[in-house]
Backbone:
């Protein structure tokens, strides 16, 4: 609990007397001699007043919602914040998609299916715009976190990054007004005005969080304008690489994802010092396996050449799971045995581990590959598989570390 006027911590914001639940409360005064005001006046206010003050950029409203509305947490972000964030991103990308359709007279047959993909970036697809918006938000938050770390690590012993992210999400509430654009036919310039509003709210929230000057807060928020450009640039650059050097690009991408995924699994989930030998093995495996997947998809294309279009994804998925899944798992265990310098242990390892591994992988890969073969443009199918593998690997680590704890 904090005093929303000065930001100092207080023991409580009100005291209840009489029977509990009787509603007899007395608001606590802040005991900071320079403040002495009521610590949190919003306790007695209607939510609509809090919201109005949020709208009017009052720092007190931000402090109230961030610090006094819910129990303090050392780690992580409450699920409500995540849900709200997903809704914002959904609105925002939907508006972008509508705008693209109107401005460029693009009329995709569907927002998701990909029939006519050649070799350009699928800018006009809803799912692509949505993912871009997710990436933009991620880069926005990461760049603010990085700046905070660079500038404030000497001043504060601990920086609560979860509260920083929460304050950014909370102050983006202006994006909720985008729903008005979807319901009524607002001009697209309304979006620009909202963006400015959200930016200035972000500014206040960061200012509250860091107790910093407006100028520094402006510097932090300024990174946003650039991040949107960067994501598009990265996409263009990546698609160009993918076209000119497909195998190398896929190998490097997969190696990078394996590297990051393995470090997250070890440091973030298993919570131990990093075993770099294991990281190296997984990274090398990532760079070997992706080219194999690349060629396998080419083989699949040839094999299913005469299959009617509507069955194609199904047939591809079934062959993939019955032929390639065992193959790639055997290759993986062989690689690990050789990398460990114990090539003789391959057969024993396969005897014990192959079937359980395959059973586990069949829980997720058939669906993932069906989606992959149906909705994802061919050039991005290996990448999609990498991302599923990345998430699946992290999920498996969470599972096994829970087992160890129990
Ligand atoms: Zn105070």
Residues:
């Amino acid at each position: 609990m904090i005093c929303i006027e000065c930001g100092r911590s207080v023991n409580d914001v009100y005291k209840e007397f009489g029977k509990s639940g009787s509603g007899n409360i007395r608001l606590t005064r802040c005991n900071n001699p320079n403040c002495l005001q009521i610590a949190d006046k919003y306790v007695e206010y209607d939510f609509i007043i809090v919201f109005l003050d949020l709208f009017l950029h009052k720092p007190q409203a931000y402090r109230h919602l961030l610090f006094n509305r819910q129990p303090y947490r050392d780690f992580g972000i409450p699920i409500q914040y995540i849900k709200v964030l997903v809704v914002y991103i959904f609105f925002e990308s939907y508006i972008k998609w509508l705008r693209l359709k109107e401005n460029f007279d693009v009329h995709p047959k569907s927002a998701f299916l990909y029939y006519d993909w050649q070799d350009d970036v699928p800018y006009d697809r809803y799912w692509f715009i949505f993912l871009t918006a997710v990436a933009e938000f991620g880069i926005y938050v990461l760049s603010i976190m990085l700046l905070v770390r660079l500038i404030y690590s000497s001043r504060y012993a601990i920086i609560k990054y979860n509260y920083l992210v929460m304050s950014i999400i909370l102050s983006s509430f202006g994006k909720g007004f985008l729903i008005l654009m979807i319901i009524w036919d607002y001009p697209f310039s309304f979006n620009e005005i909202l963006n400015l509003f959200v930016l200035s709210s972000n500014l206040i929230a960061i200012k509250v969080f860091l107790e910093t000057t407006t100028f520094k807060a402006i510097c932090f928020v300024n990174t946003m304008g650039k991040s949107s450009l960067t994501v598009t640039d990265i996409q263009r650059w990546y698609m160009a690489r993918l076209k000119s050097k497909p195998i190398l690009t896929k190998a490097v991408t997969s190696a990078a994802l394996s590297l990051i995924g393995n470090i997250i699994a070890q440091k973030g989930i298993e919570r131990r010092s990093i075993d770099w030998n294991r990281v190296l093995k997984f990274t090398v495996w990532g760079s070997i396996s992706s080219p194999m997947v690349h060629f396998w998809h080419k083989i699949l294309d040839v094999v299913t050449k005469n299959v009617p279009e509507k069955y194609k994804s199904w047939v591809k998925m079934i062959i993939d799971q019955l032929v390639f899944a065992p193959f790639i798992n055997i290759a993986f265990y062989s690689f690990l045995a050789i990398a460990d310098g114990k090539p003789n242990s391959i057969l024993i390892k396969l005897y014990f581990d192959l079937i359980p591994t395959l059973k586990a992988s069949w829980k997720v890969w058939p669906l993932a590959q069906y989606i992959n073969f149906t909705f994802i443009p061919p050039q991005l199918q290996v990448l999609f598989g990498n991302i599923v593998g990345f998430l699946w690997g992290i999920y498996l680590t969470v599972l096994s570390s829970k087992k160890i704890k129990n």
